[in-house]
Amino acid sequence: MSLILGINSWALTPKLDMSNAVGVIEKLAELPIIGDKKVLEYLVFDTEAQAPDAGFIRQVAADKGFSHVSVCGINLNDPKAEGPSFSISKSEDVRKAALETGYRLIQIAADVSPEGGAPRLGGPFYMMHLEKNPVEPEEYYRLVDFLTKMVERAYDVGVELDPEVLNRFELPGPNNGRQVVQLVKDVREKAKKMNPLLIKSQYDLFHSSLEFEKPEEAIEYLGKNDCLGTVHLGDSNRLALNTGALKGKFGRVLKAIYDATKDQPDDVPVVPEIFCPEFGKNVAIWPWPTEAPVDDSYTQAKDSFGVLNTHIKNYERSGRYLLGR
């Protein structure tokens, strides 16, 4: 296996659809993403509106040179009176509605992926903000049940689930690598039909850096337990890589991802998470930085690949081929 570099669609827009897909994907394809393969991560908020566009997005992405298209799904099902924890609500009707949204996200991930493109669904595609942390035991069991149903549906269409489990802001619950691995193992044990590797965990460096002084240790632990899926690379300020508190660490992080997954059968998408201002300011629940220019997310993405490409080429000169040969 090798690493595959890519970019998320919300580096330019929070809503990719037929009206803007050609221009947005064409612009993203101009980024200096090195390697024979590259992945476009397609952000899906609205499964009803964006589902019919999946085939169109797939074709445009392939035409612009993206070998892989994955989905980052955000489950915005209305929790009604149940508060923010709708995916693991006590109400069976609310959980059912959230699950139906999850199933649509799985189908979009299957439909948008090119032939041979290893379809994936990552992101915070289940519960949103809980009022307390950690979750109560009954909430945890409902979460395992929810993810079990999701992975059994994903098995039917060949989609890998990479829930963004370690996410202090949007998915309170697991707070460290051990708890993430335990959740994935509990789902694997409960699922009646599945390839165990069809559920892993999306690792987000921005969130993980809040929990770990050395993120590479968390990466190593997740990889050792076959739980490392798609990787989001973000600096502490949510801007271009190497402009925040994680400056100087991305070379070690890339090597850790490669070492942790080099023996697994599938390639690992590594995606800088850069937000366009419309998305970052209106959707993000963390304080949006004001001390840096955030109006040009394309330049931030370009600069981020400059950082990654430098490290990857340095490793190649020492005989380590993180992107394959």
Strand content: 5-15%
* Cα separation of the termini: 11 Å
Helix content: 40-55%
Rg computed from alpha carbons, rounded to a whole number of angstroms: 18 Å
For the biggest sheet, the summary is: 8 strands, parallel
CATH architectural arrangement:
Alpha-Beta Barrel
Number of strands: 8
CATH class: Alpha Beta
Would you identify the regions where 5 or more consecutive residues have pLDDT less than 50? 79-84
The main sheet orders its strands as: 5-4-3-2-1-8-7-6
Q: Roughly what is the average pLDDT, rounded to an integer?
A: 84
What is the H/E string? Answer: EHEHHEHEHEHEHHEHEHH
Structural notes for this entry:
- With 325 residues, the chain is an alpha/beta fold.
- It has one domain (3-317): Divalent-metal-dependent TIM barrel enzymes (TIM Barrel), CATH 3.20.20.
- It is built from eleven helices and eight strands.
- The protein has an eight-stranded parallel sheet, with helices on both faces.
- β1, α1 (21-29) and β2 (39-44) form a beta-alpha-beta unit.
- Mean pLDDT is 84; it is low at 79-84.
